[in-house]
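Recap from last week: sequence in, structure out.
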Amino acid sequence: MPLRFRRRAMPVPAEILSALQVPIILVDRSGHPISANPAAEMMFGRSEDSLAEKGWEGLLPPDSPVRALLHEAAAGEHEISAYDVRIALVDAPAVTADVLIAPVAGQGKHMTLAFQRRSVAALVERQADNRGAARSAAALSAMLAHEIKNPLSGIRGAAQLLGSSDDGEGRDELSELIISEVDRISALIGRMERFSDPRPARLKAENIHSILGHVRRLAELDGVKISEVYDPSLPPVAADRDALVQLFLNLVKNAREAAGEGGHIRLTTAYRHGLKIGRPGGRGRVRVPIEICVVDDGPGVPAGLADHMFDAFVTTKRGLGGLGLALAAKIASDHHGHVEYQRDEAKGETIMCVLLPMAGEAVS
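Predicted structure tokens:
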């Protein structure tokens, strides 16, 4: 087929595709290439004519994740996004890229296949930061738990004996202060122990809106006002209910502190098609279509902290704070999910989004 004739037949303007630096290939519903822009020709080392004539034969192996994604997109007739995909080539070095597949608007027979080549995809970088935050705190948490938690029961018992003496109100007030501070430290250590717990989370099907409803009731007991924008048709998530309650309570608490008195906090849920993330250790990929966001109208995180906010002990508050978001990252990772920070300056909103798989979601 002559090059000029095929380009005129393209349902996507050739001038637009040629101008884009992102490699884009137009494929039919079977996944066979029809045409390609210059960036795609350079990426795969084949001309547009050769791609259209030979297809993926001799270029992508039969078990290539690109072929699997094309098949999935054609079967589901919706967009597919996969991040940090290692693409093995038959006669060239492997490349790593985000793979984005979408039906062409108004053309039921064609799809665009785009490759965003980066050293590491932005989402995967944030996901790795989440897991790194959990790992970096593990050794410290184990040490503190061993060195501090054992003596706490003795300290608390001594304080209780002090409070039962007849030496006046001053001693009672002091004992209450000691007990309060010991309880606070004990709670801190208990939270840190979760980082070093090697046991896998026990997940079962849960209604995410039931979990969020419980979180809202707990938060409102503390005076927090929350509005809701939910997708009522969401399927169940694979969850450890208590852990997710803790995760979202941490996010709501942070939102309350950021927004201040009179601030507005909103919980939202939505279903996002096609998004996949890698599991720890490269053990396959899992879809994370369930999106839960905690939105506040506070000023956001200072620029210097935004890239490290999921690290343990990174905080703008005084004292031994900075565990809430690191713990949120750990819990999300335990659920094969991801938590990320976004800032919408146009709306003046800070958004903490948690992405989770559906119950029974298979790993690919």
